[in-house]
Amino acid sequence: xKKRAFVRYSKQGKIVPGSLILTAGSYPNGPSTWKEVSADxxxxxxxxxxxxxxxxxxxxxQGEGGFIYGFSLDTYNIPGKNLSGTIYWAPGQEExxxxxxxGDTYDFIHQFDSLAPHTVYLCVNNPAIIQDFExxxxxxxxxxxxxxxxxxxxxxxxxDDMNIYSLDLSNMKGLSQLYHCxxxxxxxxxxxxxxxxxxxxxxxxxxxxxxxxxxxTLDNNGLSNGLVDLSGGTNAIxxxxxxxxxxxxLGKGWAVIVNS
Length: 260
What we know:
Elements: E1 4-8, E2 21-23, E3 34-37, H1 41-44, E4 51-57, E5 67-75, E6 77-90, E7 93-102, E8 105-112, E9 118-124, E10 130-134, E11 143-146, E12 156-158, E13 166-168, E14 177-179, E15 187-189, E16 198-200, H2 208-221, E17 227-230, H3 240-251, E18 255-258
Helix pairs in contact: 2-3
Protein backbone atom coordinates (compact mmCIF):
# COMPACT_ATOMS: atom_id res chain seq x y z
CA UNK A 1 0.00 0.00 0.00
CA LYS A 2 1.31 3.41 -0.94
CA LYS A 3 2.36 5.63 1.96
CA ARG A 4 1.33 9.30 2.30
CA ALA A 5 3.47 11.96 3.97
CA PHE A 6 2.23 14.88 6.08
CA VAL A 7 3.98 17.78 7.82
CA ARG A 8 2.45 20.04 10.46
CA TYR A 9 2.41 23.84 10.12
CA SER A 10 2.56 26.41 12.91
CA LYS A 11 0.23 29.41 13.20
CA GLN A 12 2.95 31.44 11.47
CA GLY A 13 2.74 29.14 8.44
CA LYS A 14 6.09 27.45 9.03
CA ILE A 15 6.74 23.70 9.06
CA VAL A 16 7.00 22.40 12.63
CA PRO A 17 10.46 20.85 13.12
CA GLY A 18 10.50 17.05 12.96
CA SER A 19 6.76 16.72 12.27
CA LEU A 20 6.93 14.48 9.18
CA ILE A 21 4.60 11.47 9.42
CA LEU A 22 4.31 8.60 6.95
CA THR A 23 0.93 6.84 6.97
CA ALA A 24 -1.23 4.63 4.80
CA GLY A 25 -4.30 6.76 5.56
CA SER A 26 -5.23 10.37 6.20
CA TYR A 27 -4.08 12.31 9.24
CA PRO A 28 -6.97 12.91 11.69
CA ASN A 29 -6.24 16.57 12.46
CA GLY A 30 -7.27 17.62 8.97
CA PRO A 31 -5.89 20.08 6.42
CA SER A 32 -5.93 23.16 8.69
CA THR A 33 -2.83 22.00 10.60
CA TRP A 34 -1.29 19.34 8.40
CA LYS A 35 -0.31 19.44 4.76
CA GLU A 36 0.52 16.52 2.51
CA VAL A 37 3.96 16.48 0.89
CA SER A 38 5.59 14.15 -1.62
CA ALA A 39 6.38 10.65 -0.39
CA ASP A 40 6.38 8.57 -3.55
CA UNK A 41 7.45 5.28 -2.02
CA UNK A 42 5.74 3.22 -4.72
CA UNK A 43 7.69 4.65 -7.62
CA UNK A 44 10.92 5.99 -6.15
CA UNK A 45 12.00 2.76 -4.45
CA UNK A 46 12.30 -0.55 -6.36
CA UNK A 47 10.03 -3.30 -5.05
CA UNK A 48 12.96 -5.63 -4.33
CA UNK A 49 13.85 -3.50 -1.29
CA UNK A 50 11.85 -4.42 1.81
CA UNK A 51 13.95 -2.54 4.37
CA UNK A 52 13.91 1.23 3.91
CA UNK A 53 14.47 3.88 6.57
CA UNK A 54 13.12 7.33 5.71
CA UNK A 55 14.39 10.59 7.13
CA UNK A 56 13.65 14.18 6.27
CA UNK A 57 15.70 17.35 6.55
CA UNK A 58 14.36 20.88 6.36
CA UNK A 59 17.36 23.19 5.93
CA UNK A 60 17.84 26.75 6.96
CA UNK A 61 19.29 29.07 4.35
CA GLN A 62 22.88 27.96 3.89
CA GLY A 63 23.65 30.29 1.00
CA GLU A 64 24.86 29.06 -2.36
CA GLY A 65 26.22 25.86 -0.84
CA GLY A 66 22.78 24.53 0.06
CA PHE A 67 22.99 22.10 2.93
CA ILE A 68 24.88 18.88 3.57
CA TYR A 69 23.21 15.80 4.99
CA GLY A 70 24.35 12.30 5.76
CA PHE A 71 24.88 9.43 8.15
CA SER A 72 27.33 6.69 9.14
CA LEU A 73 26.89 2.93 9.16
CA ASP A 74 29.14 0.57 11.12
CA THR A 75 28.97 -3.08 10.10
CA TYR A 76 29.36 -6.21 12.13
CA ASN A 77 32.48 -8.19 11.24
CA ILE A 78 30.97 -11.09 9.31
CA PRO A 79 33.49 -12.65 6.90
CA GLY A 80 32.07 -13.27 3.46
CA LYS A 81 29.07 -10.96 3.95
CA ASN A 82 28.42 -7.62 2.28
CA LEU A 83 26.21 -4.66 3.10
CA SER A 84 24.39 -3.69 -0.08
CA GLY A 85 21.70 -1.18 -0.85
CA THR A 86 20.74 2.16 -2.36
CA ILE A 87 20.29 5.67 -0.97
CA TYR A 88 17.60 7.70 -2.72
CA TRP A 89 18.79 11.22 -1.97
CA ALA A 90 16.36 12.76 -4.48
CA PRO A 91 14.56 11.67 -7.64
CA GLY A 92 17.27 10.78 -10.12
CA GLN A 93 20.02 11.03 -7.48
CA GLU A 94 20.72 7.49 -6.32
CA GLU A 95 23.79 6.08 -4.62
CA UNK A 96 24.28 2.32 -4.80
CA UNK A 97 26.70 0.56 -2.46
CA UNK A 98 28.06 -2.93 -1.86
CA UNK A 99 30.45 -2.95 1.09
CA UNK A 100 32.27 -5.70 2.98
CA UNK A 101 30.97 -6.43 6.47
CA UNK A 102 34.34 -6.10 8.17
CA GLY A 103 33.53 -3.88 11.16
CA ASP A 104 34.43 -0.66 9.35
CA THR A 105 32.56 2.66 9.40
CA TYR A 106 31.06 3.88 6.13
CA ASP A 107 30.08 7.52 5.74
CA PHE A 108 27.48 8.71 3.26
CA ILE A 109 27.04 12.39 2.55
CA HIS A 110 25.09 14.44 0.01
CA GLN A 111 24.76 18.15 -0.70
CA PHE A 112 21.34 19.56 -1.52
CA ASP A 113 20.57 22.97 -2.92
CA SER A 114 17.15 24.26 -1.94
CA LEU A 115 14.92 21.21 -1.49
CA ALA A 116 12.81 21.73 1.61
CA PRO A 117 11.31 19.62 3.00
CA HIS A 118 13.20 16.71 1.50
CA THR A 119 12.85 13.01 2.26
CA VAL A 120 15.77 10.60 1.88
CA TYR A 121 15.35 6.82 1.76
CA LEU A 122 18.08 4.45 2.91
CA CYS A 123 17.26 0.98 1.55
CA VAL A 124 19.31 -2.11 2.34
CA ASN A 125 19.04 -5.76 1.40
CA ASN A 126 20.61 -7.04 4.63
CA PRO A 127 19.95 -4.69 7.58
CA ALA A 128 21.11 -7.29 10.12
CA ILE A 129 24.70 -6.49 9.08
CA ILE A 130 24.43 -2.91 10.42
CA GLN A 131 25.82 -2.63 13.97
CA ASP A 132 25.82 1.14 14.60
CA PHE A 133 23.77 3.88 12.99
CA GLU A 134 24.66 7.57 13.32
CA UNK A 135 22.56 10.40 11.94
CA UNK A 136 24.76 13.37 12.50
CA UNK A 137 25.84 15.40 9.51
CA UNK A 138 24.22 18.49 8.11
CA UNK A 139 22.97 21.60 9.88
CA UNK A 140 21.27 19.62 12.62
CA UNK A 141 18.09 21.46 11.79
CA UNK A 142 14.90 19.39 11.73
CA UNK A 143 14.94 15.71 11.00
CA UNK A 144 12.10 13.23 11.05
CA UNK A 145 12.90 9.52 11.13
CA UNK A 146 10.46 6.82 10.06
CA UNK A 147 10.63 3.03 10.01
CA UNK A 148 13.75 2.71 12.18
CA UNK A 149 12.53 -0.79 13.07
CA UNK A 150 14.00 -2.15 9.85
CA UNK A 151 17.36 -1.83 11.66
CA UNK A 152 16.24 -3.95 14.61
CA UNK A 153 19.68 -5.59 14.92
CA UNK A 154 21.47 -2.25 15.39
CA UNK A 155 23.41 -2.19 18.67
CA UNK A 156 23.94 1.59 18.86
CA UNK A 157 21.74 4.48 17.71
CA UNK A 158 23.27 7.97 17.70
CA UNK A 159 21.34 11.04 16.53
CA ASP A 160 22.89 13.63 18.84
CA ASP A 161 22.19 17.28 18.01
CA MET A 162 19.66 16.48 15.30
CA ASN A 163 16.34 18.26 15.88
CA ILE A 164 13.94 15.33 15.98
CA TYR A 165 10.55 16.03 17.54
CA SER A 166 9.44 12.40 17.91
CA LEU A 167 11.56 9.25 17.81
CA ASP A 168 10.13 5.74 17.53
CA LEU A 169 12.77 3.13 18.39
CA SER A 170 10.33 0.48 19.55
CA ASN A 171 10.99 -3.25 19.11
CA MET A 172 14.67 -2.75 18.27
CA LYS A 173 15.66 -5.83 20.22
CA GLY A 174 19.37 -5.58 19.42
CA LEU A 175 19.66 -1.98 20.64
CA SER A 176 21.81 -1.55 23.76
CA GLN A 177 23.02 2.08 23.42
CA LEU A 178 20.87 5.11 22.59
CA TYR A 179 22.27 8.65 22.26
CA HIS A 180 20.19 11.69 21.43
CA CYS A 181 21.25 14.94 23.04
CA UNK A 182 20.45 18.58 22.84
CA UNK A 183 17.43 18.91 20.58
CA UNK A 184 13.68 19.44 20.48
CA UNK A 185 12.99 15.75 21.16
CA UNK A 186 9.61 15.69 22.91
CA UNK A 187 8.27 12.17 22.45
CA UNK A 188 10.12 8.84 22.39
CA UNK A 189 9.02 5.21 22.22
CA UNK A 190 11.37 2.40 23.30
CA UNK A 191 8.73 -0.25 23.95
CA UNK A 192 10.11 -3.70 23.18
CA UNK A 193 13.72 -2.53 22.95
CA UNK A 194 14.63 -4.95 25.69
CA UNK A 195 18.44 -4.75 25.48
CA UNK A 196 18.91 -1.05 26.31
CA UNK A 197 21.60 -0.58 28.96
CA UNK A 198 22.90 2.92 28.13
CA UNK A 199 20.27 5.61 27.40
CA UNK A 200 21.53 9.19 27.07
CA UNK A 201 18.76 11.69 26.31
CA UNK A 202 19.96 14.88 28.04
CA UNK A 203 19.05 18.47 27.16
CA UNK A 204 15.94 17.68 25.16
CA UNK A 205 12.28 18.62 25.64
CA UNK A 206 10.82 15.30 26.79
CA UNK A 207 7.33 15.41 28.28
CA UNK A 208 6.53 13.89 31.66
CA UNK A 209 4.87 10.97 29.87
CA UNK A 210 8.02 10.33 27.81
CA UNK A 211 10.33 10.59 30.84
CA UNK A 212 8.13 8.16 32.76
CA UNK A 213 7.94 5.86 29.75
CA UNK A 214 11.72 5.61 29.48
CA UNK A 215 12.19 4.94 33.19
CA UNK A 216 9.37 2.41 33.46
CA THR A 217 10.38 0.58 30.29
CA LEU A 218 14.00 0.25 31.40
CA ASP A 219 12.86 -0.98 34.81
CA ASN A 220 10.50 -3.52 33.27
CA ASN A 221 13.27 -4.79 30.99
CA GLY A 222 14.94 -6.08 34.15
CA LEU A 223 18.57 -5.39 33.24
CA SER A 224 21.16 -4.39 35.85
CA ASN A 225 23.99 -1.84 36.12
CA GLY A 226 22.90 0.47 33.33
CA LEU A 227 22.89 4.24 32.83
CA VAL A 228 20.00 6.56 31.96
CA ASP A 229 20.40 10.34 31.65
CA LEU A 230 17.22 12.41 31.22
CA SER A 231 18.60 15.64 32.68
CA GLY A 232 18.96 19.15 31.33
CA GLY A 233 17.09 21.12 28.71
CA THR A 234 13.37 21.21 29.35
CA ASN A 235 13.08 17.48 29.99
CA ALA A 236 10.21 17.02 32.45
CA ILE A 237 10.54 15.97 36.07
CA UNK A 238 9.34 12.37 36.56
CA UNK A 239 5.92 11.80 38.07
CA UNK A 240 5.39 9.64 41.15
CA UNK A 241 5.24 6.61 38.85
CA UNK A 242 8.54 7.57 37.24
CA UNK A 243 10.13 8.14 40.65
CA UNK A 244 9.05 4.64 41.71
CA UNK A 245 10.76 3.25 38.61
CA UNK A 246 13.91 5.18 39.54
CA UNK A 247 13.93 3.60 43.00
CA UNK A 248 13.65 0.17 41.41
CA UNK A 249 16.40 0.91 38.87
CA LEU A 250 18.73 2.12 41.61
CA GLY A 251 18.16 -1.18 43.37
CA LYS A 252 19.31 -2.92 40.18
CA GLY A 253 22.56 -0.93 40.19
CA TRP A 254 21.58 1.66 37.59
CA ALA A 255 22.90 5.23 37.51
CA VAL A 256 19.88 7.50 36.96
CA ILE A 257 20.10 11.24 36.22
CA VAL A 258 16.91 13.29 35.91
CA ASN A 259 15.73 16.84 36.43
CA SER A 260 14.26 17.72 39.82
